[in-house]
Amino acid sequence: MKRNHVAAILVAAVTSGLFAAPATAQPVRLKDVARVQGVTTNQLVGYGIVTGLNQTGDTASAAFTSKTIQNILQTFGLTTTSTDVRTRDVAAVIVTASLSPFAHSGDTTDVTVSAVGDSTSLQGGTLVMTELRAANNLVYATAQGPVSVGGFSASTNGFAGPNSITQNHVTAGRVPQGAVIARDMITNIQHDQAGFSYVLTSPDFRTAARLASALNVRFGGGTARALDAETIRVNLPTRYAGDPVDFLADAGDVSLQADQVAKVVVNERTGTVVMGGDITLAACAIAHGNLSITIATNNVVVPAAPFSNSQPPVQSNTRITAAEGNKKLVYISGAATLAQVVRALNTIGVSPRDLIAIIQALRESGSLQADVEII
Q1: Domains in the chain, please, with CATH?
Q2: Residue 365: is its pLDDT beyond 50?
Q3: Which among 42, 166, 45, 168 has a CA at the least distance from the CA of 116?
Q4: Who is most buried in 93, 257, 336, 365, counting CB within 10 A?
């Protein structure tokens, strides 16, 4: 199914009311709209090599791969030179991982392995022990193990080319549970027992105020206070003193109404339009041209000269025509709900890609009361 048709179906579904925004926002849980400040994942990175490849590793032009092999062999008491090292079964890789905010030493996590040289495939390779460092340059984990690429690559000569076949992306893969964590992760909750701050995933002043109010109703006045559109400071009630985990467990299920921002997200590459929130449309008139260009080529064989042995020449006749559709000025009355806005825009009878241009023009004219984000 073409992407335009998919987008048209989605627009039709919104028009019929399947995705129409309700008059009031639906209640959501606190844990679904906010996170605890400072409780985040930690990114790690390292440089290593993958061995055991079937002639799909780096070539001699990747000098750093040869140097890496020499350094590794030197740790085992073997002294080699660049002329002694062959790299076709070895590939230099960058190893990345993310640690959960509450990870402890001895835990394991997945790592992603990506080729940095001119290797054609990491299929069947094994990652050699690699140190993974954080932004502070401290080693937080070590990674090692067989690489899973989730695809395959096959060729007649071991090189990618016209005589090869590749399924999925074989120059990057994962090592499941391949990293062993060496340090405990410390969060702000363990440092500050008096309280902490919630951070909204979608900053909004009204949602922040509602969250603080919901916490004060549930746990007593003075428990929470909104500092800005994103941050809500929480002071632990007396019965939760020194035990923020119990408070977080009880507060996670507190319900509130998250305010929705009127927003239109447009993807010009795929022709997708998604609308949400309390969008309003003022009365306006729209005319959208429809230019169609057709290029037709007709090849005609010209008769050859009498008694000639040459091939008859072929004459190519190309014809270009342009036609502009007869579009009229369309009046659209004002609309107050998402379903009404989509129904009004559908009266124009344009494709989703044309609708993108119209939405941008409506926003510029001030008729569409919503933020337009182009991705």
Answers
A1: 3-22+263-301+314-374 (no CATH), 27-39+188-257 (3.90.1150), 42-181 (no CATH)
A2: yes
A3: 45
A4: 93
